[in-house]
Amino acid sequence: MDPHLMDEIKQVGQLTEADCRLLAEMKPALEKHASDVVEAFYAHLEKFEHLHKLLHAEPGRIERLKGHLNRWLIGLADGKYDESYFERRYRIGFRHVEVGLEPRYVVAAMAFCRAVAAKMIVEAEYANDPQKVERMTALNRIMDVDLNVMLQSYDDHRVQQFLEVTGFSKALFETLMAG
Ligand code: HEM
């Protein structure tokens, strides 16, 4: 991903050095509660018939997905959000384009993660912590960064798909969009 864009996403998302330190400190709490968050996440998605179909479209997919989401969640507390972090998140976005998932579901799923993490992680582990609010803010900010990167990936790959299908050049597409 373009390093300039990466910096901008962090800056507009207000992810500070203090947030990064708090997130790294919270890693054990994320590890402790990750499997409960993951179970709640898929139990929620499985309530919607078409999402249920997608989650079970291949044998073993849901089990693999639980592992992926577990690692993703714990990875939020890496504390170091460098190029390789952004590349991983960008690829996750692309995978959802490949499986044909509309981006609005990713946005809604992130909101679900936020709410569940507030209750199952921050409230459970830091109820009386003087930095409780800052911890939740840091978690929200890194989730915003992730969402932004995933949506950027959607945008890039969908434009690419459009160019391939229509045979338009990128320059022509950009001229049309600018108009
Ligand atoms: C916060 C939002 C979400 C996160 C963080 C997330 C995370 C992930 C990750 C880490 C992967 C693996 C990507 C890879 O192979 O490199 C993945 C794949 C996938 N996700 Fe999500 N996901 C989200 C939302 C959703 C939603 C709402 C659905 C709806 C059903 C969904 C369905 C899938 C499917 C079908 C795959 C492909 C599985 C496969 O390769 O077999 N995801 N997701």
CATH architectural grouping: Orthogonal Bundle
* CATH topological fold name: Globin-like
Each distinct ligand: protoporphyrin IX containing FE
Shape: globular
Biggest β-sheet description: none
Query: Total strand count, please?
Result: 0
- Number of continuous helical runs: 9
CATH superfamily heading: Globins
Structural class: mainly alpha
Describe this structure in words.
With 179 residues, the protein is mostly helical. It has a single domain (3-178), classed as Globin-like (Orthogonal Bundle), CATH 1.10.490.10. The chain contains 9 helices and no strands. The chain has helices spanning 3-12, 17-25, 27-45, 49-55, 61-75, 83-98, 103-126, 132-166, 170-178. The chain starts with a helix and ends with a helix. The model has no long low-confidence stretch (mean pLDDT 96). Bound molecules: protoporphyrin IX containing FE. Residues 45, 51, 54-55, 58, 61, 64-65, 68-69, 72, 91-92, 95-96, 99, 101, 105-106, 109-110, 113 line the site of protoporphyrin IX containing FE (HEM). Protoporphyrin IX containing FE is lined by residues 45, 51, 54-55, 58, 61, 64-65, 68-69, 72, 91-92, 95-96, 99, 101, 105-106, 109-110, 113.
